[in-house]
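Budget justification note: compute hours in this period were largely spent on complex prediction jobs such as the one shown. Inputs:
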Amino acid sequence: MSDILIDDAPQPLAIKGRSLWEDARRRLMRNPAAVTSLYVVAILVLIAIFGPFLWVHKYDTIFRDSVAVAPTFTNMHLLGTDTEGRDMVARLIFGLGISLLVGLAATVVALTIGVTYGAVAGFIGGWLDEGMMRFVDVLYSIPFVFFVIVLMTVVQTDSPVTNLMLIFMAIGAVEWLTMSRIVRGQTIALRKKEFVEAARAAGAKPLEIVFRHIVPNVLGPVVVFATLNVPVIILAESFLSFIGLGVQEPLTSLGRLISDGARQMINAPWMLMSPAVTMLVTLLALNFLGDGLRDALDPKER
Amino acid sequence: MLAQAVRRLLLAIPTLLVIVAAAFVLMHLAPGGPFTKERQMPPEIERRLLAEYNLDQPIHVQLGHYLAGLARGDLGPSMTYKDKDVVDIISEGAPTSAILGLSAMVLALFIGCSLGILAALRQNRSQDYLVMAFAIAGVCLPPLVVGPIMQLLFGVQWGILPSQGLHRDEFGLVYLLLPVLTLSLPLIAIVSRLMRASMIEALRSNAIRTARAKGLPEGRVIWRHALPIAILPIISYAGPALAGVMAGSFVIETVFALPGIGKQFVLAAQQRDYTLVMGVVLIYSFLIILLNLGADLMYRVLDPRSRTA
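Corresponding output:
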């Protein structure tokens, strides 16, 4: 029933029922850059998950007699070792996993807060909307670094795992602002649509309308934003690592490896190059995938 | 329009107050203080120190003190640099950060817009793909990677540009070259993508079809008719982004050893130098509000449709 209604709507927005998702999937599959990126991302994820079990060295094993060796086949240090004498391939695989995990988890946090907040503000409207969005404006005017530093230090912990959770929360808690604005805009565009009226006429409660009817319909832009947000978060984590608030030893991330590598650039350039190239490939693939998704879900721009 | 601007500026005062209060409370929520050091100091001295900076009072009283100081234009004494006021520290660092940010943004707008227009006019051809590949790479390469590599190439390997520090005398500008380039790279990438998208949309609009139907030469159609429409999203982006880069970049200032406020800010936050942190937050928020207002006003000048609102 709702499918027919939406298909007849004068201005088709990103997603309208199953058939349009199917269309989008076809468009995505016809885009060679996006398909390649999809494979690259899949391979990177597989490496991050299974790599640590397959590689000969562990990420935290210290080889005291081979500190900061250049890439070599001796002892299978294919990308060399770092200044502590740990194998770079193992650290790279582990760091890739942590970076992807941070990107994913922080995006989930940002999505959960942002979608709920934006949908409620946009749907209820009036003074509540006004107040909620002014609050977002205020948060926007406080520097990102400030927030993250405060959030990261409010709970001080020595456990690397708790620290990792804090990074998810801190970055997610900053990144939801943009998400909430996008969702609010979409919600306002949708709330006067016939299917919402139909739901209300059928006796649905406001919250039910928001989560059952509005949120599924704003999913298109949300998916695109989320995909493009993962690289942004990976970069944010690298910034945190650079100022010493990122992932803690012995854990590591791409950003952490890069900031450690940047300090050893002249004596041990391999410590910078391999994580930098890995990060470039990861971010390129995620960005191309996000762009491909946007073109597929909203083909206006091509 | 002038009345509108004045009204917005007046509205900015309560907004700034809310931001200051929020940041102040958040800052004090973080455990530890500026005088929490490795070495335990005698309780008597600690008590006197806290009293000296009003830190022994409840938070709303402290906030009151701070706001009273603000009203007099006094940002308070720094809590880590014992003999300096926040105003001094900021006025030492702010010019460097501001020049750096402004030059990077001007460069990014110029190159980014040119690249974006070029890509839009050659849509789905090789130039377009080249520009877009560059744009995506620019977003993916953080200054943390680009900075050290530029230093290594231009400074160490080829030795043609100074790689670190800042000298305010005759060759001061040369020292800014690498940092400005590094800072502007991601900005160029974002601006060129935005410009490409909005130019493509503008070229498809009815106004442009009309202009072409009238038989205007293509150059005139693009520069006089399409560009004013297409530039609008760039303006809304550039306002807040300029505030962001002018308030200092920790990575750039650290990598290139420049004395800006971005570095001071991060160090201050880690050491709980409450007053110095608040000073930089205040400047940043003020810049954001001011530049957003500037962007809106420019929007009105360029886009007649938005004037009725």
